[in-house]
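Quick one, T. Sequence first:
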Amino acid sequence: MTLNRVLLACLLLGLAGWWFSTPRRAGDLPAAVHAGSSRCPLPPSIRQSGAPLQSDVPGGMASFPMAASKLVPLAGFSLDGRVLSRRDYSSGREADWSPTDLALGWDGMARDEVIDGLDISQSGRWYRYRWQNDPPLPLPEIARSSANMHMIPSSTEVARTLAGIKAGQRVRIDGWLVEVQADDGWRWRSSTSRTDTGGGACEVVYVCGISAL
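Structure tokens:
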């Protein structure tokens, strides 16, 4: 190997080390989305608070291209609800697309007295709740009125707004439930039901718009 090649290899290794050691700032787009940004059309929107509105994907709608991957739309998605908890992630394959999980509640799970009666936490891309004595709502109602959702920001503006969202706020989210399909065969598929629980029950949301209300 010539001296020039050795120097070039050292430079590339140094740049790679700097890139991966530099912490991602709040509001930055995740790696896969930054390189594959695309237009994010709004789906039909919910008119008022309540259960999220899920709509069909228009015929002929294309996938959203990303870096070494694509997002396949499964359904339109619109939500007006309360943020029960948030958790940011910087490691794991999922973080290449989604830097933040929001645990969200609607209907009974958006009420203060219900939220105050639960101990809510997130970890490992899961959302958990505990209570003392009796639960503030029947367990089936808690399950169908709340969910942990993986947020994939579609733009820097969305990423910055997402970075400022806090537990307790009411938020409006419009976007698409998607399946992440990486070129190497890795898949991450959204739930399309509000009544499922356990593995695979979280929504993977490509967020076209988000705002605190």
